[in-house]
Design brief:
3-stranded antiparallel sheet; elongated; 2 domains; about 150 residues; alpha+beta
């Protein structure tokens, strides 16, 4: 989910309200209109090409099909998940942000899908199973990467 700076949102709404108060005659009405407008800007935030390029350099992969335009997060390429493999192809060791995790956790993380829609910059995670801890870890790492790209 995109982090919202509410202080900035309200500051911008007050500035806009000061500009339109003479048209509507009441500051509270003007502020409500301005806040609605500012909230629409936040809700319709779309990632631009520069931000998309930053995300792709940070381990995200773009996928487009039909009406879908997404960037998928790859924790291996991002560097938060470091894996070594046996010759057989199974995981030998797994580290998450430098801390050792179990191979089971690594397999569960690799089995998840984490993406951001280009049209609304909202992160979503799809996982199967009852444990949401790995999903939260993945979403947090993806959010940090997204915040860094849109800053």
């Amino acid at each position: 989910m995109l982090e919202i700076d509410y202080s900035e949102l309200f500051r911008n709404a007050h500035e806009e309200a000061h500009e339109i108060v003479n048209e509507v005659g009441d500051y509270m009405v003007a502020f409500k209109i301005a806040l609605t407008n500012q909230w629409k800007v936040v809700k319709t935030m779309k990632l631009n090409n520069e931000q998309i390029a930053k995300l792709e350099n940070d381990g995200w992969a773009r996928w487009t099909k039909g009406n879908f335009d997404r960037l998928y997060f790859n924790p291996d390429k991002n560097g938060v998940l470091e894996l070594t493999y046996h010759d057989s192809g199974t995981i030998n060791t797994a580290d998450w942000n430098g801390d050792r995790i179990s191979n089971g956790e690594a397999y569960r993380i690799k089995g998840m899908k984490c993406w951001v829609d280009i049209d609304n910059a909202k992160i979503q995670v799809r996982f199967y199973g009852s444990n949401g801890d790995e999903a939260e870890m993945l979403q947090t790492a993806a959010q940090k990467s997204l915040d860094k790209a849109i800053a």
